[in-house]
Amino acid sequence: MKNDPSITADFVTLANGFLGLLAIMYIIDGNFRLGMLLILVAIIADGFDGILARFFRREAGHGVYLDSIADMVSFCFAPSILLYGVYYDLDKGTSFQSLDNALTVTASMLVVLFGILRLARFVEKGYKTKAYMGLPTPAAALFIVTLLAVVGNQFVVLGLSILISFLMISRIDYPKLRGILGWVAALVIVIGIMALFYPSDFSVYALAFSLAMASVYVVIGPYYEKWWKGE
Question: Model-level pTM?
Answer without folding.
Answer: 0.91
